[in-house]
Amino acid sequence: MAEDASQSPDFRLGWEEWVSFKDLGLPALKAKVDTGARTSALHAAEIEPFGPAARPKVRFLVYPVPGRNDLAIPCSAEVIDRRDVTSSNGETELRYVIQSDITMGGRSWPIELTLTDRGSMAYRMLLGRQALGDDMVVSPSESFCQPMLDYDVYHSTRVREAAPDRTLRIAVLSREPSNYSTSRIVAEGESRGHVVEVIDTQRCYMAINTMAPDVYYDGQRLPRYDAVIPRIGATVTSYGTAVIRQFETIGTYCVNGSDGIMASRDKLQAHQVLARHRIGMPTTAFAASPKDTDNLIGLVGRAPLIVKLLESTQGKGVVLAETQKAAQSVIDAFRGLRANFLVQQFVKEAAGEDIRCLVMNGRVVASMRRTAQAGEFRSNLHRGGVAEAVKITKEERETAVRAAKAFRLGLAGVDLLRASDGPKVLEVNSSPGLEGIENATGKNLCAALYEEIERRVRPAPARRRSKG
């Protein structure tokens, strides 16, 4: 390629120029133009391949501003090749190769980029001769022949708004990959171009230390995920929340946090949380001493009443005692089994119906009414209940949102009873099933879940550093 500045080229470049890669979320990079190098190279850290073997992808971090380790832009792209590249100091390195559109001086064109650690280099980008068109001429004695950019763009909120829809790597913590909710979450994520992996919670183990806390699975360290979607079963709540705490320690975004899952699973603690936030619920009582049976019943009111195991799920371990004597018998039986339970007011006017509100990020995205079978007081779909879409009141909506916020859950199924004195929260479910409510409402609720995840894990604009 000629480098004679007297030729009046159509597109003139200096030995250093400002460039941008909008599809990688990099609006400004200072690049060294080097016609002595064949390939172009982009500074990348924490390079990690992922995705299917037929269409591999790579994730990496770019520190666009030299000396600013506090500003990291997460990027992802399809891998088009892996090749050996020999640097100017004679060292050969096997690098991932991606393709991206480079923009310079109002012109954009696709180029190949090799990914390598250029942290010690003054320029985060090296533009090689393979990326230059036939009408481009480089003047080695000049700098910035094309319009200049500025690193201040990384402080703007426009960076977040214009962030590319990069491929995310997401883990679903579930022991049931064929379960409807889990399989729907995986299918929806893949349809949006993400890589979604189902991780069996009980096969995870953890390295707990201050310098490098990690989660391991089948003998391998798990990669850094952009997000974790917990689907923790009731039987593994304790260990499952420990695994989530480890991801939280690492800094991974978890749709539901460990504290919220643990509190919602313990029925006694859950009702104490609701009471603390002054959220309506059926009158509830708890006692450990067998001498307090009659007093316990008296706190709730007259029969009929509900006796419920603290860790009941899907309607199991929930008994309707229609008389005082029946209530005493059930309580005695539970105590004989050394089971923890609570006694709760029976809301007769609900007439075997409840409302399931699905709350995401502080708003109700869907609601359905569940009606129990004839002769059954439990309306759970697992107990044969029937579901249909329902329009809820403003008070019911606000109650459901407040309940989810009380447990700090990003995704929650809030079950309400329509009582004569207003909505009563029965339960806050941190792993709500999606089949019944998607079928009843016809809504793609998994899409709404991913929209929130994508919003959360986009790179935020950097804080402007003080010059003092």
From TrEMBL:
Entry-linked Gene3D superfamilies: 3.40.50.20, Acid Proteases, ATP-grasp fold, A domain, ATP-grasp fold, B domain
Annotated signal peptide: none
Positions of transmembrane segments: none
One of the protein's GO biological processes: SOS response
UniProt cofactor(s): Mn(2+); Mg(2+)
Tagged with keyword Ligase: yes
Keywords, alphabetical: ATP-binding, Ligase, Magnesium, Manganese, Metal-binding, Nucleotide-binding, Protein biosynthesis, Ribonucleoprotein, Ribosomal protein
Pfam families: RimK, Rimk_N, Zn_protease
PROSITE patterns: ATP_GRASP
Ranges of residues in domain ATP-grasp: 271-454
SUPFAM superfamilies documented for this protein: Acid proteases, Glutathione synthetase ATP-binding domain-like
Keyword Metal-binding in record: yes
Cellular compartments per GO CC: cytoplasm; ribosome
GO molecular function, one term: ribosomal S6-glutamic acid ligase activity
PANTHER family, sorted: RIBOSOMAL PROTEIN BS6--L-GLUTAMATE LIGASE, RIBOSOMAL PROTEIN S6 MODIFICATION PROTEIN
Family the entry assigns: In the C-terminal section; belongs to the RimK family.
The protein, known as: Probable alpha-L-glutamate ligase
Provenance organism: Mesobaculum littorinae
